[in-house]
Amino acid sequence: MTDLNQIELQNLKHLIGMHETAYQKLNTFSSQAVDPEIKQTFAKAAQDSLNTKQKLMGFLEQ
Predict the structure, then answer these.
(1) Residue 57 to residue 20: CA distance in whole angstroms
(2) Digit-coded pLDDT (tens) for 2-61
(3) The pTM is what?
(4) Cα angle: 44, vertex 48, 50; to 5 degrees
């Protein structure tokens, strides 16, 4: 992989932060939901956000 320039690095950090925020919010929504189907939907979306964040962080480790 090629080195990231400053703008790409800033954008990557921003995306990671956005996915972390989405994960936290969706996880909270899931824990507060009463309906099991809605709870599961929020939990899956939270997990998807966390997975994407971890994939994006992989670019920082290369």
Answers:
(1) 11
(2) 688 999 999 999 999 999 999 999 999 999 999 999 999 999 999 999 999 999 999 888
(3) 0.88
(4) 115
Compute CA distances 6 → 13, 21, 52, 61, whole Å: 11, 23, 21, 16
Q: Are 50 and 19 spatial neighbours (Cβ–Cβ below 8 Å)?
A: yes
18's tokens: 């956005």
Six-digit token string for 36: 């099991």
- The residues near 27 (Cβ < 8 Å, ≥ 6 apart) are 42, 43, 46
Which position has the token pair 């969706």? Answer: 26
